[in-house]
Amino acid sequence: MKVPVRNMAGKEVDTIELPADIFEAEINIDLMHQAYVRQMANARLGTHKAMTRGEVNRTKAKWYRQKGTGRARHGSRNAPIFVGGGKAHGPRPRKYTQAMPRKMRRAALRSALSALLRDDQLVVVDEFKLDEVKTRAARAALEALAGTGSSLVLLPGRDEVVERSVRNLPNARVLHASYLNIRDLFSHDKVIMPLSALDVIRSYLSVAQEG
C-alpha cells in the first residue's frame, strides 16, 4: 500500500510502498487482545500480601474465660472477625507472567500496525530530528504531524535530543522501534514513524524473517 511521506512541517514530500506482510496483515482482534493482556499481566509485580491470623503481632492469650460470661467462646483476638486481626483468604505473593510464542507476539504487532494504517492513525515521516533540546520545537512538529491528540514517536535507536525534547509533553512519548508493543501502539491517537524506524520494524516483523 502506498502512503504519503511527510516532513516535520507536515507537508507531503514523497510516497512509499509499505510492506504488505506487515501493514496489510489480517487484523486479528483476539490475538491482539491476548498480547495486550499478556503484556499487562507481565508488568504486575505480584508482591501483594495480607497477614493471616498466625502472622498478626497481637497477644496469643485467650481473650476472656471460656465459660460464664454469656458471650461467644473466643480463643484469640487474631481472628479475622476482629478489628486488627488477620485476613482470611487474603492475597499472597504470586507471579502473573503469561507465556506467548514469539510468532504469535509478532503476528499481533503486524495486526496492530495494519489496524492503525487502516484507521489513518499511522504517519510516515522522512525523519524526526531536532537540532537542540527544545520542547517547543517538538510540540510544533507533533502538532503539524498528528494534531493536538496524543502521539507516539518511533525512533530507530537512541536520540537524546528528541527524547529529552518530547519528555515534558504530557500527550507524547518516544519509543525505540525495537521495543514495539501492543500497549503503546493503542495508547496514542497517532503513531509517527520515520523511515529509519520503518527499516528496524521491517528487519524483525517481516514474515520472511520468521521462516
Give an account of the 3D structure.
With 211 residues, the chain is of the alpha/beta class. The protein has a domain at 2-20 and 98-210: 3-Layer(aba) Sandwich (Ribosomal Protein L4, Chain: A), CATH 3.40.1370.10. The chain has helices at 20-23, 29-42, 102-118, 135-146, 160-167, 182-186, 195-205, 207-210, and strands at 2-6, 12-17, 122-125, 151-155, 172-176, 190-194. It has a six-stranded mixed sheet. α2 crosses α3 and α4 (135-146) crosses α5 (160-167).
SSE diagram, text form:
Layout: E1 2-6, E2 12-17, H1 20-23, H2 29-42, H3 102-118, E3 122-125, H4 135-146, E4 151-155, H5 160-167, E5 172-176, H6 182-186, E6 190-194, H7 195-205, H8 207-210
Parallel strand pairs: 1-3, 3-6, 4-5, 4-6
Antiparallel strand pairs: 1-2
Q: Please give the CATH class of the domain at 2-20 and 98-210.
A: Alpha Beta
Overall outline: elongated
Main structural class: alpha/beta
In DSSP terms (H or I, runs of 4 or more residues), the helix count works out at 8
| Strand residue content | 5-15%
SSE string: EEHHHEHEHEHEHH
The CATH architecture of the domain at 2-20 and 98-210 can be named as 3-Layer(aba) Sandwich
List low-confidence stretches: none
Biggest sheet, spatial arrangement of strands: 2-1-3-6-4-5
Kindly identify the CATH topology of the domain at 2-20 and 98-210: Ribosomal Protein L4, Chain: A
Main sheet overview: 6 strands, mixed
What is the number of beta strands?
Answer: 6
Rounded mean pLDDT is 92
Cα radius of gyration in angstroms: 27 Å
Query: What level of helicity do the residues show?
Result: 25-40%
State the distance separating the first and last CA atoms: 23 Å
CATH superfamily of the domain at 2-20 and 98-210: Ribosomal protein L4/L1
